[in-house]
Amino acid sequence: MLEILALVVAVLVVTVVTALALVTQRRGRPLPPGPPAPGVDYRPGVGDDAEVPRDTAKRPVATVALPDVVPLPAPDQREDITSVGPPLEIPEPSAGRLTRLRARLARSQGTLGRGLFALLSRDVLDEDTWEEVEDTLLQADMGVRTTSDLVERLRRDPLARAMRPDKVILAALAATLRLYRAGIATAEIPIWRQIAAPLDVLERRARVVAERTGARAAPTASTIGGGSLPGQTLDSWAVVIEGYPPQRLLATLRAGTPTTIGRIVDDAVVLDLRTVDPSDDHRLADALRAAVEAQSAPSPT
Predict the structure, then answer these.
(1) What is the pTM of this model?
(2) Which fold has domain 197-224+231-296?
């Protein structure tokens, strides 16, 4: 009986406490705002976050003048932007070490500088040339180590590699030297064979070609190059074609088969037989006859 009474009292106490808590919570809530009072501006003003009264004067909006719009010129009236400001300076490409070294050695007045310039100015910088460079530097008391370092740097220069002969050039040089050693250079090398051609043989060949083409054979002079032998000539015989416009006849010969190159002397086309291989005499005669016939053919109207 007492236990039931204690349970009923506990339930009543919990109920009363819960009711008091709900009433207290409702009393702490803020009331909803009422209607605005007349004559009061409730809009946010300047500096509301700094607690400035809401009825202070508003900051006016400043009027800012915009700059005048400048119209763009027509495309044909615009300035060339390349003419504005100073011209750009484009640096020249730097030369290789070997090129700069040659330029400096050319201005040298000493024995060592002149000797190195003579060696490094050769057309082909082969192994023998580099050995001579080493010997020259060693004789100048530069020391073995300094000489080896300098020569190795020059060997790696791109210009030195570009001037190094390849296997084809070396093979051709070896074959040519074998002809000289065998004593048959004048018979096997074309330039020496042409230079050594007897004058009477040239005259006989020229008369045969001239007879086949209706031209005439005449003595002439052959020029032996302008590099090693400038101004030097040899007596020779040539085939001379006259009676036709020389420029037009030469153009026809150059366009024919085989291509034939001649020169003009006293308004006549001259073909030197010293410059023609004997095995090509019949081809030269056919080319001349075809060119002459083309000059004689009536032009199409």
Answers:
(1) 0.45
(2) Aspartate Aminotransferase, domain 1 (3.90.1150)
